[in-house]
Amino acid sequence: MAAQFRTHVFAVEVTGKNARLLRFDREGAVVTSSFAYEEETHLVDFLWRFNHASSEARGHDGSVTMPSANEAAHVDTARTVLHMEPTAKVWRFEVFDEATQKPVVFYGGVLAESLSQGYLEDRSA
Predict the structure, then answer these.
(1) Count of alpha carbons within 13 Å of 59, Cβ hemisphere only?
(2) How many Cα atoms are found within 13 Å in the side-chain-facing hemisphere of 120?
(3) What are the structural domain ranges in the chain?
(4) What is the pLDDT of residues 15-61, one digit of tens each?
(5) Cβ–Cβ contacts within 10 Å for residue 108, how many?
């Protein structure tokens, strides 16, 4: 989940004529009881709702986005400070600071040497 910036993921387990729906997050998993997918509409209902859900409801982390063209200077700084490749993908992270009651923006990405992630805080806001 962390490599794809997700808050949760869904899975469907099909065993013979039965299925289960699973939802995983960083705390664990929630699993439905097994149901006969040819007789019950749970699977079709879930897939229809999943297809029509927002990105966040499908598990995408809305606080992580691609930086806009106006943020090019921050992207270049992040690549330099974090020793990233010149063409490495940089992400924009917006995190709410409860102490200041304001969002804080970080820029970062995967560092080639260690395949870990590094972040640079934008203190200009």
Answers:
(1) 17
(2) 21
(3) 2-52, 64-122
(4) 999 999 999 999 999 999 999 999 999 999 999 999 999 999 999 99
(5) 20
